[in-house]
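[Q] Does anyone have a clean structure-token version of this?
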Amino acid sequence: MRPDVEVTPPGSPDVAFAAGDIVELLDVLWERNRDRDWAAPASLAQLRLMYAVDRENGIRMRALGAVLNVSAPSLSRLCDRLQSVGFVERRPSPHSGREVTLNLTAEGHAHLAEVRRKRGEVLNGAIDRMSAGQRAELARGLTGLRAALCGVPVAPPVFAVSDVRGPAG
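[A] Here you go.
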């Protein structure tokens, strides 16, 4: 271990505060740019729903409600709004005639790709101002945090931070 690296014990409120502070800052940045920059804006709640469906396309509505921790009526209203702009579609479950699944449409996938691209631009602007060592530490730390949040180990990213920007041009 390098002598200049401070070891933070598990349960340290400083680390949780720093991570929470970054999450709040990103929420503000995303919201500030959402209405100004995107032709078909989706609220943060709608984006959360779209992210969940993107991770598990064809998810049952009941399971989606549990993932998002929202009531059935609230989930239905979110889906209604997203369906009206063409981002999601409801389908009968292939396993049960009583259940409904939710899928992203091509327009929904395209919108999420654009949201991710624009967010990537904001993040890359900040990350580019960090040293190479700081970027490497950030990548390692975020990989560990994601694994801890998901409860399962994940492989480290197979792309460099600069790859998020897409082709140079």
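[Q] Thanks! Anything notable?
[A] The beta strands are 59-60, 88-92, 100-104.
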